[in-house]
TrEMBL record:
One of its GO terms (biological process) is plant-type hypersensitive response. GO terms for molecular function: ADP binding. Residues 10-101 form the Disease resistance N-terminal domain. SUPFAM superfamilies: L domain-like, P-loop containing nucleoside triphosphate hydrolases. Pfam families: LRR_14, NB-ARC, Rx_N, WHD_DRP. It comes from Triticum urartu (Red wild einkorn). Residues 452-774 form the Disease resistance R13L4/SHOC-2-like LRR domain. Belongs to the disease resistance NB-LRR family. This is Disease resistance protein RPM1.
């Protein structure tokens, strides 16, 4: 939507005109002060005009979306906004470049007219043109665009009308359409009819007057009555809080029901009184689809020739009853031929947007979008770049949003933390699921007008021409995601993409990065994971805005049998300059040449993987680690299986810890520095090649928040025993490659929350571990690399009755 584009541009201009940027610009363009003042004045006038346009568009919402004149005017607004965004990016680049190069650079170039003045002139001229274009757009709007007429178009009335449309939609469902709701209906009837005399609030979360006078009326009317109030389709907690001021808990057993799509509204319910409306299971969805699509005379039977097409159409509804009913009703009046149903299936996007029979679906989805906060709309629409049912990786999506400029810092929270909260907000509102119906609504609002983002999702290309992408038209590109493509070389021209904030080369065939990479001064994410790059260019230390560096690659496929199963990159020159780094995965220590000491400068790190560590490096490593007060994820791997990791100090902020290599005797005792660092916050622990002689479980059981535990070649003893009360929060347990382990015993009341148990290659174990029968919440029980004889024992074991389990055989037993 145009208002989202405008908001992003307004925020960028705000940054460009902020005190810090303005002072920096004044200092480095002091010789051209008059031109600079003129430019900043023009930018100020432009941003004021854009704010007014933004406010008008927010008021208008999507009411005029089918008004062609209005849409044409909006398109021109978008073009001007994008042009202004380009100029702001160019301006900020020039300010930053002047800051980086300094005046000495120009002295070396002689007395020629600096390129910066030429750029400043060009930017100033372009901004003046944009200012004129905005004035012309304002005149055009007044002449031709009937944005506000005499109809009832206020925002409040419009929202009320949309809510009424949704209510009418719900009432249009016949009783026979209500399939798959028996359990929730039973719970609701039970809560409503309970003997509890206190007034309670029940919320149903899913897809759906003047306040002062309303409060007074309710107080007078309700009095000492026992009442039931239903608030349908509530969007904000304020709506309930305003009403609750007029409600009196009179001990009559009154009830208040709220339906909502918002998680924060559902949280208002009395404890345990939330009904979450889940999508219909496949069988119930099929029954409802057939009821609405096929006539009663045929017992709602689906003809065999339409079965596959019907299933394909139904899959796009994702179990949503309203969608199934609406699309089924559309199909009911169409010819029951393969040709007709194939046409509808192929044109379903058009039907949803244009067919009046599907107004209900549009109203539901549009209302959800309208109520989204402006800061979430751009994030939501960005997801339409991806195919339907695309599996998002949460942290990658966060980094892409950051690169696009959708995220701004809030208080002490980092960009990543703010973006994570946006993901949670969209997920709690059940919007972060891109399926066919949502994508059809997203696409009209999310047309990309200029090439600022390039993401490839096709991994099977045999070749890919990169150079055409790096043309002058792509100068302002922010995201270049080429993961999985067979690219072997990155052209030097990539350095011209000064605005690039995300460069993804994951699993490509690139072996070297060009020297020009150092010119990408705005880069936030550099993803080289799985590529053939083993060394970073010296200029990498100039990328002082870099926040995420991924360079890990597996060199051994299959199950990990060697401590050197993966590689990273050598410590690059200038790593200590990258003080904004949040993630580094992974670095290899080569020599004690001071490189490891660079880590002490990276005090904002949240995640670090460092490999090929020798015992002699550990003292310097620990000195750096304790300075990282925000570090939550640490992976340290020794140079070989016999190298001892002498980690005598770690930051207490750690939540995930993976150690690969021998640990000294007593390393896990409660009084050891290593254990004390883990005790407070650790929730995930992996120990590999530790070669412990003492049983680690008595100490590890004292970690109060531990949820995931993996012991791989970690223990040389013969028995592990889980006692009653140990590991109350543990959800997953992996025990691998402990050749001396003969006995595993689980007492009743131990690991009571365990969901996953994997036992792999425990070759000395000859009996089924006693206590497995106590693991009733277990969702996955797996035995890996076992003998055929052990499979027989498992099948005959009474302990496994009622438990689902799986297994794989050892290579020599297959």
């Amino acid at each position: 939507m145009a208002e989202i584009v405008l908001l992003l541009v307004i925020e960028k201009i705000g940054v460009a005109l902020a005190n810090g940027a303005a002072h920096q610009a004044s200092a480095h363009f002091s010789r051209y002060a008059a031109r600079l003042i003129e430019l900043q004045g023009s930018m100020g006038r432009v941003v004021r005009e854009l704010r007014i346009i933004h406010d008008v568009l927010c008021q208008m919402g999507i009411r005029n979306r089918h008004n062609q004149v209005y849409e044409g005017w909006l398109d021109e607004v978008r073009k001007v906004a994008h042009a202004m965004e380009d100029m702001v990016d160019e301006y900020m680049y020039q300010v930053g470049r002047e800051h980086d190069t300094g005046c000495c650079f120009y002295l070396k170039k002689g007395l020629r007219k600096p390129r910066s003045l030429l750029s400043l002139n060009q930017i100033s001229s372009k901004v003046k043109e944009i200012e004129k274009d905005l004035a012309h757009l304002s005149e055009m709007k007044n002449r031709w665009v009937p944005m506000i007429n005499n109809a009832d178009t206020s925002s409040l009335n419009y929202m009320i009308k949309k809510s009424q449309d949704l209510a009418n939609t719900s009432r249009s469902l016949d009783n026979e359409d209500l399939v798959g709701v028996d359990e929730n209906r039973g719970k609701l009837e039970q809560w409503l009819g309970s003997d509890d005399v206190e007034c309670s609030l029940i919320t149903l979360t899913g897809m759906a007057m003047d306040i002062t006078s309303l409060q007074e009326t309710l107080k007078r009317y309700l009095g000492e009555m026992k009442y039931l109030i239903i608030l349908d389709d509530v969007w904000t907690p304020d709506a309930f809080e305003d009403l609750s001021r007029s409600l009196v808990c009179n001990g009559k057993g009154s009830r208040l029901i709220i339906t909502t799509r918002q998680g924060d509204v559902a949280a208002l319910a009395s404890q345990g009184h939330v009904l979450t409306l889940e999508p219909l299971p496949e069988d119930k969805a099929w029954d409802l689809f057939c009821k609405k699509s096929f006539p009663k005379e045929t017992s709602h039977h689906c003809p065999s020739e339409l079965r596959l097409l019907s299933e394909e159409i139904l899959s796009k509804c994702k179990g949503l009853p309203l969608a199934i009913v609406s699309i089924g009703s559309l199909l009911h009046v169409r010819e029951k031929t393969v040709e007709e149903w194939k046409r509808i299936n192929d044109q379903l996007s058009w039907e949803i947007l244009n067919n009046s029979r599907l107004d209900h679906i549009r109203n539901v989805l549009h209302l959800s979008f309208i109520y989204l906060p402006t800061y979430l709309k751009s994030c939501f629409l960005y997801c339409s770049l991806f195919p339907e049912d695309y599996l998002f990786h949460r942290r990658k999506l966060v980094r892409l949003w950051m690169a696009e400029g959708f995220i701004v810092e809030k208080g002490a929270s980092t960009l990543e933390e703010v973006a994570e909260s946006y993901v949670k907000e969209l997920r709690d509102g059940r919007r972060l699921v891109v399926h066919k119906l949502k994508k059809d609504i997203q696409q009209p609002f999310s047309i990309i007008h200029v090439l600022r983002t390039f993401i490839t999702l096709e991994k099977s290309m045999s070749s890919f021409p990169l150079l055409p992408l790096l043309s002058e038209k792509s100068r302002y590109m922010t995201v270049l995601e080429l993961s999985g493509l067979p690219i072997e070389k990155i052209p030097d021209a990539i350095g011209d993409l000064f605005n690039l904030r995300y460069l993804g080369l994951r699993y490509s065939k690139v072996k070297l990065l060009p020297k020009s990479i150092e010119k990408l001064s705005n880069l936030l994410t550099l993803d080289l994971c799985g590529s053939d790059i083993h060394e970073l260019p010296p200029g990498i230390g100039k990328l002082n805005k870099l926040r995420h560096l991924f360079a890990e690659k597996n060199i051994i496929s299959g199950r990990i049998q060697n401590i050197r199963y993966a590689r990273g990159v050598c410590f690059p020159i200038g790593l200590g300059n990258l003080t904004n780094l949040q993630t580094v995965q992974a670095l290899e220590v080569q020599e004690v040449d001071g490189s490891i000491r660079q880590l002490r400068e990276l005090r904002q790190l949240r995640s670090l993987r460092i490999w090929v560590v020798k015992g002699t490096f550990c003292e310097h490593l620990c000195e750096s680690l304790v300075l990282m007060q925000f570090l939550s994820n640490l992976n340290v791997s020794a140079s070989d299986e016999n190298e001892v990791l002498l980690l005598n100090a770690l930051p207490p902020s750690l939540q995930k810890l993976s150690l690969g290599g021998r640990l000294p005797e007593g390393a896990l005792l409660a009084e050891s520095p290593l254990f004390q660092a883990m005790e407070q916050n650790l929730c995930s622990l992996r120990l590999s090649w530790s070669q412990l002689r003492e049983d680690p479980l008595p100490s590890l059981s004292r970690l109060p928040n531990l949820m995931d535990l993996c012991l791989d070649k970690a223990y040389n003893g013969e028995k592990l025993e889980f006692l009653t009360g140990w590991f109350p929060k543990l959800k997953s347990l992996y025990l691998w490659d402990m050749p001396d382990l003969k006995m595993l015993e689980i007492h009743q009341g131990a690991v009571t929350a365990l969901e996953t148990l994997v036992l792999g290659n425990l070759e000395s174990m000859v009996e089924v571990p006693p206590g497995l029968e106590f693991l009733m919440p277990l969702q996955l029980l797996s035995f890996r690399e076992i003998t055929r004889d052990f499979v027989t024992l498992l099948r005959q074991s009474p302990q496994l009755v009622g438990l689902q389990w799986q297994h794989t055989l050892r290579d020599n037993d297959q």
